[in-house]
Write a structure and sequence with these properties.
heterodimer; A: 407 residues; alpha/beta; abc type-2 transporter like fold; 2 domains; 72% helix; elongated; B: 222 residues; Rossmann fold; 9 helices; 33% helix; globular
């Protein structure tokens, strides 16, 4: 007998179709559970006074008296009612944001106050938690207001100095110099916004908090989906491999067919529940889920096919390498978590050191995030290259492993 | 010259020699049993004959054709059922036969496959089949191209008595129709059903008289 690639593919398709309903149900349940969880978490956050209070850090030049002044100004400012202000270093801020101890951090560059005092243009960076990017704008409004107050305080001080000089008949040159300072501050005070600009150093690598939530959910679903596909490999025993090898179907061809089917199955099994769920939500609560969910679904769908190919190749290799579905499932889950984490799916990779970041940026999740962020043709080809490399590597490894088993 | 000739087949795993020169010469139309202790190399020998495992030496011919060098001739002449059941639980017998690259009707009307009675449960899922039905389906797949030599690796493993009887009946019919069965077994009923017996010991095949009692056979196996 001669088993051909097409006849094997047809048989595997039939198996995949049989698994599909279970995967659709699983996908739908997951989407429902995740949405319910996020709605519950959101409600809890809104209703909890403690969680509504933001923890905002301010980082800048150590030992600079202006920094102390800025910290005090922020504490006395309008945002202090809704935020707790902490003096931190940039490294501490990154660590605290990762740990969820800080919601945002304003990073003032070295010599910031002196520079804007003489009218030099400066940039303020701010970091926000990937879960609370929405607060960035309000925090920066508060920061701008506080800096204006610092400038005003400086003006009042100079007025005071000037009054003291004139009242006491002191040096005329000192009065002239103070006048120059006042003029400069008045001029700049009229156009304070031009003195500094705020730059959102997106800690999420260009991806919104929703994007991270979606990607996190995605990795989670991928792991569960690995479980769904488990049944496809359960009966793929050594006897089957020996039988197929004897029948002339090479291990690489077996792996190829498995990969094609796995990718198709998982892509379909993930997109369809997402679409159905979005449609149901929009029909039941028009508008309620629109902003939060529809964009998430769109982003999700965009990521599905590319990532499915990579995860399929990887999981196929794991199932083959482990020799049984259960072991493969564990490896698959571990892989999903690791790649998701290192790619910045759970936390932004900007939190890692540049050297580590350079390596991690090669991972498929990071490539997908870059692609979604930029969405240009060049990025697409770069992403495609990496996906093909990952998929083909896993494929070759599966083939070799399967070949050894067959032997 | 015998129809089935296995001459000086050798196989080594790293430093361990499993087969040191396995030789067997028999005529077609028989059921030949290969016995041996666990780990003696019975399955290895069958895998080498099936072309799955590379050999370190030796030759194998059937009906005058070299089976090692001619892969196409081997696929046309040999059917192989490995240890275990090479089937997918959620699919039917028909689905499995479709895998074999020939129309299902054509396979079922074949001289040997007809004897297995797979047509009676064509649309039954494997998960609902008895052990005997599964084994007969696997054999039907192996014989879908009218192969005249059937290599079976412990076909009775985990089968109950009626299933074993059913399987042995099918194998006897196959041999009667001119097919040759080379089977690796530990099963007493299968040993009794074989026309010839060989024991694989120290890497070589030793002919074993069928009339010897069990203790004599066990003694020969070492």
């Amino acid at each position: 007998m001669r088993v051909t690639f097409l006849s094997y593919l047809r048989l595997q398709t039939k198996r995949a179709v049989k698994v599909l309903p279970a995967m659709l149900v699983l996908g739908a349940l997951l989407f429902a559970a995740l949405t319910a969880f996020s709605v519950y978490a959101h409600e809890a956050r809104v209703n909890d006074p403690a969680s509504r209070r933001l923890r905002v850090g301010i980082a800048g030049e150590e030992g600079n008296p202006y920094m102390t002044l800025a910290g005090m100004a922020l504490k006395n400012d309008s945002i202090s009612s809704s935020a707790e202000i902490l003096r931190v270093t940039e490294a501490e801020a990154q660590q605290m944001i990762r740990a969820g101890d800080l919601d945002a951090c304003v990073i003032l560059p070295e010599g910031f106050f002196e520079a804007i005092g003489v009218g030099e243009h400066k940039q303020i960076r701010y970091l926000t938690s990937p879960y609370r990017t929405g607060i960035g704008r309000s925090v920066m409004r508060g920061v701008a207001s506080s800096i204006s107050k610092i400038l005003l305080a400086c003006e009042n001080s100079i007025y005071g100095v000037q009054k003291f000089i004139s009242d006491n008949g002191l040096d005329r040159n000192a009065v002239d110099e103070s006048n120059v300072l006042i003029l400069r501050y008045f001029t700049k005070a009229l156009d304070r916004d031009a003195l500094f600009e705020t730059v959102a150093e997106s800690p999420s690598g260009g991806l919104s908090a929703d994007g991270h939530t979606v990607l996190s959910a995605f990795v989670f679903i991928m792991m569960i989906w690995g479980g769904g596909a488990f049944s496809l490999y359960r009966a793929d025993s050594k006897a089957v491999r020996d039988f197929l090898a004897f029948s002339g179907l090479s291990p690489v061809r077996q792996a190829c067919a498995g990969l094609i089917l796995h990718t198709a199955l998982c892509t379909f099994g993930l997109i369809v529940p997402a679409m159905i769920f979005a449609a149901v939500c929009n029909a039941l609560c028009p508008g309620a889920f629109e902003a939060a969910f529809s964009s998430g679904v769109f982003a999700f769908v965009l990521r599905v096919l590319a990532a499915s190919a990579v995860f399929s190749a990887a999981s196929y290799f794991f199932y083959t390498a482990a020799g049984n579905g259960a072991g493969g499932l564990l490896l698959h889950a571990f892989f999903g978590l690791t790649v998701g984490y290192l790619s910045g799916c759970f936390y932004p990779i900007t939190f890692f050191s540049p050297a580590v970041r350079a390596v991690f940026s090669l991972l498929p999740g990071a490539a997908a995030i870059r692609f979604i962020s930029s969405f240009d043709l060049f990025s697409f080809f770069i992403l495609l290259f990496w996906l093909l490399l990952f998929a083909s590597s896993a494929l070759v490894l599966s083939g070799v492993k399967r070949g050894r088993r067959a032997a | 010259m015998a129809d089935l000739e296995i001459v000086s087949v050798e196989k080594r795993y790293k430093n361990k020699k499993v087969l040191t020169g396995a030789t067997l010469r028999e005529n077609a139309g028989q059921c030949i049993g290969i016995l041996g202790k666990n780990g003696s190399g019975k399955s290895t020998l069958l895998q080498i004959l099936a072309g799955i495992l590379p050999r370190d030496g030796g030759s194998f011919s059937f009906m005058g054709k070299d089976m090692f060098s001619d892969g196409k001739a081997r696929a046309g002449a040999i059917g192989y059922v490995p240890q275990g059941t090479p089937l997918y639980e959620e699919l039917t017998a028909r689905d499995h036969l479709r895998l074999c690259g020939r129309p299902v009707g054509e396979i079922l009307s074949g001289r040997f496959v007809k004897l297995l009675g797979v047509g009676e449960y064509l649309d039954l899922r494997v998960s609902r089949m008895s052990g005997g039905m599964k084994k007969r389906l696997a054999i039907a797949m192996a014989l879908s191209g009218e192969q005249k030599l059937l290599l079976l690796d412990e076909p009775s493993l985990a089968l109950d008595l009626p299933c074993k009887a059913e399987l042995h009946r099918s194998l006897s019919d196959y041999a009667r129709e001119g097919g040759t069965v080379l089977l690796v077994t530990h099963d007493l009923q299968e040993i009794a059903a074989c026309d010839k017996l060989y024991i694989l010991r120290d890497g070589v095949l030793v002919s074993c008289p069928k009339d010897g009692d069990l203790s004599a056979i066990a003694e020969r196996m070492g």
